[in-house]
Amino acid sequence: MTGGPAGDAVIRLSSAAYTYRGPPPVAALKPTSMVIYRGEHVAITGPSGSGKSTLLNLLGLLDKPTQGTIEIDGIDVGAASERERAAVRAHRIGFVFQSFHLLAYRTSVENVMLAQVYADEPRRRRRAAAMAALAEVGLDHRAHALPTALSGGERQRVAIARALVNRPAMLMCDEPTGNLDTATTLELTELLESLHRGGTTLVIITHNPTVAARAQRQIAIRDGALTEISPVTLPAPAGPPETPPAPGVPTTPPPPAGAPEPPSGTGAPGPVQPLPERQPPTPPEGPPPADRGPRGLDALGFPDE
Ligand SMILES: Nc1ncnc2c1ncn2[C@@H]1O[C@H](COP(=O)(O)OP(=O)(O)OP(=O)(O)O)[C@@H](O)[C@H]1O
Ligand SMILES: [Mg+2]
């Protein structure tokens, strides 16, 4: 693994593409090469149907590229077995979705516990870890509430606590604020940013330009093709800078401009990469990607209690 100015490459796509088998086949992600560095905060924007969720599903190991490779920490996870991929996902990646995906008849703390991968830990300890994750999102006082008794923002906080409980290095968020009002969107964005300041690599798909503009790095996607957008320079706030990170908390890395790793797509603005010739869809290894509905707990392979 090569370190760039922003840190280590944590995810590397090399000519990775994804075609839904159909029929008819849908080339949802064209061959893409890009690197996400440890500790980055990346926003992915694009119109509906442009391939954002498809890309996030690859980055989060929910799907394998139908072409090209994906590496996490230098390991070719596209070639790994489903069991190995599930283990990487469970231990290293947390997911947050627009529609929360909480189980209706489980309390907040039970919903968080459902995600725990250290199932051999005593229940008391797992419950304590779930309570700590709820406290981190400011919701320990609602630990015993059912989702129906929570506001949308509170439900999403439970989902974030669930994503955090295994201490993942990366958080993959697909429209995390899509169902929330403006004030709650801001609160949730601040919460995600505080996790990023704590060292979590944060990838957020969003339709919300304000949420996207707060990321260090923005990637636009259109018709399955990625474009790196130069960091947006927001007007400097009057007065002292915003809350500095707490002492000892790693600061966010500088933008990885000039990272010595072509084709990383992290350099100057413009196309992420010259796209290779479009190739006919390659049948995926193993079972084909089924056409399916929105992903939920099942897709994440959360263990039953
Ligand atoms: N299971 C599937 N089978 C076939 N085609 C699919 C499937 N899921 C998505 N697609 C198609 O792949 C393309 C990209 O879809 P994707 O879900 O990645 O878009 P998106 O950018 O996340 O959109 P949105 O903003 O609406 O969530 C679209 O043309 C979509 O119709
Ligand atoms: Mg989507």
Stretches with pLDDT under 50, minimum 5 residues: 1-5, 239-305
Q: What is the total domain count? A: 1
Helices and strands, in N-to-C order?
EEEEHEEHEHHHEHEHEEEH
What proportion strand? 15-25%
Helix content class:
25-40%
Query: For this structure, what is the CATH homologous superfamily?
Result: P-loop containing nucleotide triphosphate hydrolases
**CATH topology assignment:** Rossmann fold
Q: How does the major sheet shape up?
A: 7 strands, mixed
Radius of gyration: 19 Å
List keywords for this structure.
305 residues, alpha/beta, Rossmann fold, seven-stranded mixed beta sheet, disordered C terminus, binds adenosine-5'-triphosphate, binds magnesium ion
Summed up, what is this model?
The chain is of the alpha/beta class and 305 residues long. It has helices at residues 52-59, 82-92, 108-113, 123-136, 152-164, 182-197, 209-213, 297-300; strands at 3-4, 7-20, 26-37, 41-45, 67-72, 75-76, 93-97, 170-174, 201-205, 217-222, 225-229, 270-271. The chain has one domain: P-loop containing nucleotide triphosphate hydrolases (Rossmann fold), CATH 3.40.50.
Give the topology.
Blueprint: E1 3-4, E2 7-20, E3 26-37, E4 41-45, H1 52-59, E5 67-72, E6 75-76, H2 82-92, E7 93-97, H3 108-113, H4 123-136, H5 152-164, E8 170-174, H6 182-197, E9 201-205, H7 209-213, E10 217-222, E11 225-229, E12 270-271, H8 297-300
Parallel strand pairs: 4-9, 4-10, 7-8, 8-9
Antiparallel strand pairs: 1-2, 2-3, 2-5, 5-6, 10-11, 11-12
The structure holds adenosine-5'-triphosphate (ATP) and magnesium ion.
